[in-house]
Amino acid sequence: MDHSYADFRARREATVWQRLNRILRVLLLLAIWLVIVSLFVPPYKKLVQSRAEIDDLQQHVNERQSLLSRQTREVNLLKTDVTYLETIARDRLDLMKEGETVFRLELAHAAKPKIGDSVRK
């Protein structure tokens, strides 16, 4: 019990200068920590930005690869599948076989007249 009282008394008897030295040490450590953090924040932000850019570019590459695979498949079908070639040719040239009925569905936004068109009429 005497030992704990001695600690308490030592803290109580600390001079103003000793307390100011402790505060100064804490502030100095805090300043050093802030300097270190400020040195590492800009490179970290650049790293995060670069990773986001890499992700965007990877997504773009994936989209392009998907488009390439679809177009490659279509080219292969056009070269090898006569039925597919005939269907595509008749669709693009608006042709039909004898006795065949073709139904074309127009998109809703394409069927609406534009505001400028109605004013000009």
Question: Got a strand count?
Answer: 0
Helical/strand content category: mainly alpha
Distance between the termini: 104 Å
H/E element sequence: HHHHH
Strand content: under 5%
Helix tally equals 5
Instruction: Catalogue the unreliable spans.
Output: none
**What is the CA-atom radius of gyration, in angstroms?**
39 Å
Tally of individual domains? 1
Biggest β-sheet strands, sense, barrel:
none
Helix content: over 70%
Described by the principal axes of the CA atoms, the overall outline is rod-shaped
Notable features of this structure?
single chain; 121 residues; mainly alpha; 5 helices; 81% helix; 0% strand; rod-shaped
What is the topology?
Elements: H1 2-12, H2 16-80, H3 82-93, H4 108-111, H5 115-120
Write a structural description.
This protein is mostly helical and 121 residues long. The protein has one domain. Helices cover 81% and strands 0% of the residues. It has five helices and no strands. The radius of gyration is 39 Å and the shape is rod-shaped. The mean pLDDT is 83.
